[in-house]
Design a protein that fits this description.
253 residues, NADH Oxidase, binds flavin mononucleotide
Length: 253
């Protein structure tokens, strides 16, 4: 007999929209959570090239026609400028605004329900010029990379977390988007979760199209081991956890 899927389908529905019995934390007047995780006082922080100084460009039709998921990488390095362009294009900040309800919000390259943007971008670096291999976090507000950790056997641990998808470690880097759900729950309470998952799809599509401009391959990844990837990134798996991944790699065109 087929397994009952109804409980798994609930996240895809809007059952509670407009029917929540409890007020959200925003409606209760609780303070807004920060727009992103802070930059630690100590540790290595890398200034990235200004986005406006980067001259990557491509015709939109060409990007849409050429976009593919690419998994065969050739081992050529990626420049820091290329990586910068990709992390910024995926979910970079264009502006910080104060909204009519006095909350703060970022306007970014990707749309997000209520401009909540409940994500952080992590970069697992294997082969990027001027960057040591390691786990980095992109501060979208400050446009900097923060070196979070340099675990032993980074490639092996990444492949394990990606349930054996070994092509990931033959590329230049792997991007992981984590979700900090309270940033969306503060406003949307129990209906925050479906919009957050829709949001992150926009981010990855931005990446796919931007990859065409910097002649880099990417492949979206949803098949991963939740606990292993969260451990690799140092996330608690409760208030922050990985939700989507994409590989990056130079390829023979
Ligand atoms: C949400 C999502 C999850 C995916 N997960 C994986 C994955 O874990 N591994 C993989 O090799 N490809 C993955 N893909 C890539 C798809 O297999 C790919 O998009 C599909 O085969 C269509 O090919 P195209 O992107 O070249 O058009 C994923 C794509 C999406 C949108």
């Amino acid at each position: 007999m087929q397994k009952d899927m109804s409980q798994y389908r609930l996240i895809m529905k809007n059952n509670d929209w407009g029917k929540a019995e409890e007020l959200s934390d925003q409606q209760k007047g609780l303070p807004q959570p920060p727009l992103e995780k802070p930059i630690p006082a100590e540790g290595k922080v890398i200034d990235l090239p200004e986005v406006k100084s980067l001259e990557f460009d491509i015709n939109l039709n060409q990007a849409i026609w050429n976009r593919r998921s690419r998994r065969n990488y050739n081992g050529e390095p990626m420049s820091l400028a290329e990586l910068t362009y990709l992390v910024w294009t995926a979910d970079g900040v264009k502006k910080t605004i104060k909204r009519f309800d006095r909350s703060y919000a970022t306007l970014r390259t990707a749309p997000s329900a209520g401009a909540r943007h409940p994500f952080e971008t992590y970069v697992i670096v294997f082969n990027v010029t001027d960057l040591e291999p390691g786990v980095y976090r992109y501060s979208a507000l400050e446009h900097k990379l923060i070196l979070e950790a340099q675990p032993q056997n980074l490639a092996e641990k990444t492949v394990e977390a990606l349930v054996g998808q070994s092509f990931a470690a033959t590329g230049n880097a792997v991007l992981v988007w984590s979700c900090v759900p309270y940033r969306a729950e503060w406003r949307y309470s129990t209906v925050a979760h479906k919009p957050a998952l829709l949001d992150v799809g926009h981010i990855c599509q931005n990446l796919y199209l931007a990859c065409e401009a910097v002649q880099t391959g990417t492949c979206a990844i949803a098949a991963y081991d939740q606990q292993k990837i969260d451990e690799l990134l140092g996330l608690d798996g409760q208030d922050e956890f990985a939700v989507y991944i994409a590989t990056l790699g130079k390829y023979d065109r």
